[in-house]
Amino acid sequence: MNDVLKISGLCAEIEDKKILKGVDLEIKTGEVHAIMGPNGTGKSTLSSIIMGQPKYKVTSGDISLNGESILNLAVDERARKGIFLAYQYPAEVPGVTNSDFIRSAMKATTGKDVSLFSFIRSFDKACQELKMPDDLAHRYLNEGFSGGEKKRNEILQMKMLKPKFAILDEIDSGLDVDALRIVGENVQNMVSDNFGCLLITHYERLLDYIKPDYVHIMINGKIVKTGGKELIAKIDQQGYDWVKEELGIQIESEEEKRSHALLGACAHAGK
């Protein structure tokens, strides 16, 4: 039986500014959903709220996992239930090695100890699949990493933690063509009855490697249109003006005013 992450009538604000204005979305494991839309329409806000960013105030609606509301759960509790957020801007954590961080995160989210031999074998395999350097295990988390290395490191954590649902917030920004292909293929290979994915992206090229089952267009804090791959081609050719004309809506020009404060390592480690 597939797991279900459901967002119902979600409205949220920050500093009295309304950002989400009634988001409805249902994701099942085995599915890939892509959210696209102009800047400042609430896409990154949605990802942060799903993970439990406390700076946002949910004013109405609900987020549930398999029928159970998670709105009152802290970030670490959501991580333990199998929700993972890959950051648009991953934080650097000096003094904590990559391997120590991921092994601690695995123990925190599963509640079980991870044998060193099993961990090293899985870690090395994931690094090879992502074509990451051999010394990665001993480097401090994201410190001195290039932008592309940070993004691949987020996917490495996801591969090791094996969440039920991953939210990838513009994981493609800053990646060159080769890195984009590597990241995309690794994400696509994870999709199964035990794993579903929500992609937030501006770039159609990522969707050449991660095949979405559903494409959603988000404007003014709401999902206004849902379809398949045909929407990607139309956005690529015409931008979003056609949506405004077709649905008779005005795209707000003011960009989303929100704090991009990171949740920190707890979104991954469950600490």
Short description:
This protein is 34% helix and 27% strand. The chain is an alpha/beta fold. The strands form 3 sheets. The protein has a 6-stranded mixed beta sheet, with helices on both faces. Strands 2-1-4-5 form a 4-stranded antiparallel beta sheet, with helices on one face. A two-stranded antiparallel ribbon has the order 7-8.
Question: Can you put this structure into words, describing what you see?
Answer:
This protein has 271 residues and is of the alpha/beta class. The protein is 34% helix and 27% strand. The protein contains nine helices and twelve strands. Strands 6-9-10-3-11-12 form a six-stranded mixed β-sheet, with helices on both faces. It has a four-stranded antiparallel β-sheet with strand order 2-1-4-5, covered by helices on one side. Strands 7-8 form a two-stranded antiparallel sheet. Strand 4 (57-65) and strand 5 form a beta hairpin. Helix 5 (147-161) packs parallel to helix 6. The longest helix is centred in the middle third of the chain and has 15 residues, at 147-161. The chain is globular and about 60 Å long. The model is unreliable at 253-271 (pLDDT under 50).
Tally of alpha and pi helices:
9
Helix-strand category: alpha/beta
Strand order of the largest sheet: 6-9-10-3-11-12
Number of strands: 12
Globular, elongated, flat, extended or rod-shaped: what is the shape?
globular
Average predicted local confidence, pLDDT: 88
Radius of gyration: 18 Å
The percent range for helix content is 25-40%
Largest sheet: 6 strands, mixed
Question: Which band does the percent of strand residues land in?
Answer: 25-35%
End-to-end separation in angstroms reads 29 Å
Reading the helices and strands in chain order gives EEEHEEHEEHHEHEHEEEHHH
User: What quaternary form is this?
Assistant: single chain
Low-pLDDT ranges: 253-271
